[in-house]
Write the structure tokens for this entry.
Amino acid sequence: MKEKKEGKSLNPFLILATIIVLCTIASYFVIPGAYDRETVNNVTVVVADSYHAVDRTPVSFLDMFRSIPNGLVASGALMFCVMIIGGVEIYNRTGVIGAAVNSVLKSSSKVSSQVILAIIMVLFFIIGGILGWSEHIIPFVPIIISLAISLGYDSLVGMAISGFACLIAFAVGPFNVYTVGTSDTIAELPMFSGWELRLVVLVVICLLSLFWVLRYAKKIKADPSRSLVKNIDHSSLLIPTDSAMVLDPIKVVSLVVMIVSFAVTIYGMLTLGWSYAEMGAIFLIGGIVVAVLNRVSPEDVVNMLIDGAKGAFSGALIIGVARAVQWTMTTGGLIDPLVHGLSSILGNASSYVTVVGMFIVNFFVNALIPSGSGQATAVMPIMVPLADMLHITRQTAVLAFQFGDGISNTFWFTNGT
């Protein structure tokens, strides 16, 4: 009997490299054209009915390779911010996160298990919807699954209150720096503008998800035979808890520092015009404060920051390579002809149909570019002028991108989480 070969997931870097090659080739065949642009209230907009012929600017063989370093340079601020935020590894290595989880385990004898599930799920809603974490929560998912099994539920409940909760909240998060922050920057909108609507959507989705998961959890605890994974052995998923991890006053203060870091960052971006440099600085300060509180040596602090940056490097690199796609399309004069073609097709369609079309396109593009910030960098330069041409607000275009990208995260196997 032949052994079944293991399926391989699509490598996003190879996909982006292929797109760069295809764009290079297309620059020699696409009929060149361009729109005029003007600045209105410090925002660059496309002038309607200004499309005209221009000289062809094909991408040379050397330029095709130059696109990647140029993309990395252009995305440097966001890439380094992502890597610095990866320094939250300090909270994990100092036992702050482990102690918090252990504290929840100990309280299970005093509080209803349904309440514990609800608290954990709300916590992951906040992590995904407010903090914009995705891959960062992977190390904690096995711990939560083990906790759920210990409380008498199945592994699906553990996955639902952690990974699923984070992903579904990430999809509509109002302060998601990776999707909303990146697309707002490209669309020349105030950072995190329109957060009020996203917050309402987040609350509604979280309440519905919480109801559905707790309903399933209650059902299978009363009758384990109704579990959707009843025939799977979960014993290997149980993780022994370390009783030495205690949520002492130092670790409580450390958790407060982490919360304050996020709060200050959000406030600065909403009211002080902060960007990625200030965000990275605040998280760097918070990490160092926590290290000092937990008496971590300077050398270990540096190693923790480096390890955190290493873990975030792949995601950061995708942002730069995706920007290389934009650089190639801009250099080859491909963006405006593409926008002109799409606007011609959708010109007679209603705004509703157009926005739904944007949503669907991003839903499927996410299968090829699973990085939220990478996808924003690749598609928003096309969606923004298209929205201008079709008299759709840029906020609506950002929403179509965010929801198309975020909701599809729970479907596509290429998503890391």
